[in-house]
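Lab notebook, page 48
Experiment: co-folding of the full assembly
Goal: obtain a model of how the components sit together before planning crosslinking
Operator: M.T.
Materials (sequences as entered):
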Amino acid sequence: FRTGATVSTSEPHTLKLGHSLDQGHPVHAALEFMAERLDEKSSGTLRMEVIPNGQLGAETECVSLVQRGVIAMTKVSAAPLENFVPEMAIFGVPYVFEDEQHYWRVLESDLGRELLLAGEKQGLHGLCYYDAGARSFYTVSKPILEPADLAGLLIRVQESPTSIAMVEALGGSPTPVDFSDLYTNLQQGVLDGAENNPPSFYTNRHYEVCKQYSLDEHTRTPDLLVISQRWWSRLNTQQQQWLAEAAAESAEFERQLWKEKTEEALTKSKEKGVEVYTPDLQAFREQVKPLLESYRGSRVGDLIDRIQKMADDP
Amino acid sequence: MDAQLLILIASFVLLLVLDVPIAVCLGVAAVLSLQSAIGDMASTVVAQRMTNGVASFPLLAIPSFIVAGRLMAEGGMAGRLIDFAACLLGRSTAALAYVCTLSCMLFGAISGSATAAVSGVGGMVLPEMWRKGYSRPFSVALTTVSATTGLVIPPSNIMIVYAVVAGNVSVAAMFLAGVLPGILLGLSIIATSWWCMPELEVAADDQDAESEPESIELPLVKTTLRALPSLLLIIIVLAGILQGIFSATEAAAIAVLYAFVLAVFVYREVPFTALPKILLGSGVTTAVIFFLIAASQALSWVLALESIPQMVSEGLMNLTDNYFLLLLLINLTLLVVGTFMDMTPAVLIFAPIFLPIVTSLGIHPVHFGIIMIVNLCIGLCTPPVGTCLFVGCGVGGTKIVDLIRPLIPYLLAMVIALMVITYWPELSLWLPRLAGQME
Amino acid sequence: MMKVLHTIEKLVLRLLEWAVIVLISALVLDVLWQVTTRFVLKDPSKWTVELASYSMAWLSMLGTAVAFAHREHLGLDYFKLKLHGDAQRVASILSQLVVIAFAAWVMLGGGVRLVSEVLATGQSSAALGIPMGAVYLATPIAGGCVVLFAVVDLLELIVSPVEETPDRSPP
Ligand code: NA
Ligand code: NA
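Observation: model returned without errors.
Model output:
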């Protein structure tokens, strides 16, 4: 028999990548772009096949499959990746980054590369970060202009301990709800709001029910492109280089596309009658200080310190 | 690739003929073709896909709706609904055929599965039909087709399954979209009974004389009042989901609570000691469905890994890009699929294949879901593999072969209804739009 | 020998049946609790969703094993019923062998490897923090039970002189 992780150099190989986004998502476009670039660089000897829409399983299942080398690659948000690579919790800590520039400075630094490879022991080799913007609160009726506005509101969070702690620290009542139930729960007033980036807010049509969007930008949680360590170690240096280059180019491509999508989503949401606010963030930062303090002494606490040292760098 | 596909199809068909449980046929086909693709990790992957395939929160409404359906059938609610239908349509010999269909539709409006209607309604209406001179094959065929309306009229377990695979589709929108097509399906079955009736009445008249004195006229008000609690459940479940009180999963759990109180404390037809048996029966029925879901999830995974969905869509698109022809082609494919595959695996395997094509044609995923479900409802009644048919034969004590003749006019009527539903999107989409469940 | 097997089979089946009853009740109660915490207590529970999903995996798998014992899984007996006497028996034996092979290879074998691999990677669930291996454990346990039930059926098929078509309803 042949095993999934066998790679020889004589014949063309295909790296299969499964992800859970739809074909209209900027990351899918970036992955298709990467497949093209890889094909060109390797003159067709190393190929990538992108299988979208969660056909190969939801995010955590794909990560588990990549870990064991069943499929070669996947795209995963840093939030669910936390269940495999504890360091990823850093991206769920609110206001750990000063602003977008600081965020990218960290991702492109040695620390960013260190985090990308933090999953190697778990069989996950990170190739690049894709921009997933900043997550902000949106609510059915009451705008969130300061942390006190969150008091008593039921806010949907992703099923991760850090997300739950984050909303609790800000004063809201975190409610883990399956994403498939989110729209109806918002519509039915079962939930008061949720938090996500503008493109997700728009493409999932949450603007139909949530008319208040406050750009408080509490977390910046990137998507990671991950290749199975088993597959990676079987590629030769030349192939690894092609892959790394193609990944870097696709990340650049996606960042531009994401910027456009974000602007488009905000403009269109406003056209649909959504009020978009840009609240003063100082009060939010103050509010989460105890949460940030509580990480002191842990692995995540060290990461927070290192990241904050990079805030003032030029 | 071709070798994998060949292994897959050959092993599936061979095992199916051997009377291996369908879920095992699907699982073996998946693991054998995966073994040839990725080697000895295959069994682990299939085990993982099977387990994850059923550990899905939206599917949770299904066991609850099954428990509620059992409690309602055994707790006297089905009987009260039949009385109500009989009161509306009369107790004549001919009317009994319509009563059967209407009862199935009413029962379908409180339960999420068709087999529950076959056993729940069939168990009560069938003896009455035989007494009035209906032939066994005809009455079983009628009950079988009538029961499928319960899958189109909300709530519906298969719609939940569809919403899960389709991804961006809300269960509430699917439920609302099913109301009018479900009624159309029921009416087409009633019309067929009316059209077949002269033939039937001749057979029935001979026996009428002796059985007539037994039929008692029931007063409309009293029957309605007796059926009211059951009818109220329809309102609680549907209005609850649509009017913004709870999700489908929660509505199902509330339906269990309601049916439990009604059956155990109000009607007192279900004693406490009978509960373990009802729960066990529901649990096993759930497991039979979920094992099918699990195995077809494994098979769809293998298909996706080999990019079969993309190949099929491209193949179909190359054949024609005409809206009418393509929908016709898809419907024909699904009718063939439905003859030998159960509804759940068919939805799980074929929805991801067809959805990209139809959405590119501008067909709404909710509308396509209704088309697919109505189409596969026909498959539930066609031999050799038809769940409704199996249960109907069990309840009615008939052989599948005998049912074929009486089934034909009904299946034709269902195909006509399917065509109307396919080419008239507004019939499905008008209600969910009106209720603001979709754009 | 057969007698011992039958006793074991009966014991395991009773155990599984009660597990199914408890699990399906737990599922319904879990969702009702979710509704209560949200509407009455105004403090939505954080673990009901996850608990429900994982109980469902266990319910499906253990219930699957019970359904094998009760012969409730849907199959296509049309062609088999056309066969006569010994041919039908051979078909039944083959069919049981396929079930045993699948349950042993995929559910039991694949399941055990899955559990050990996932336990080794230390993946844990988000809200309850239980190891994912505990969720997947349902599959190999059910697989083992299916093997037991199917082997007993197979032995009966081989031992019993004249085999009628098995009854597809619970005893
Ligand atoms: Na229904
Ligand atoms: Na069929």
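Interpretation: Residues B 338-339, 379, 382, 385-386 surround sodium ion (ligand 2) (CB under 6 Å).
Next step: discuss with group before ordering constructs.
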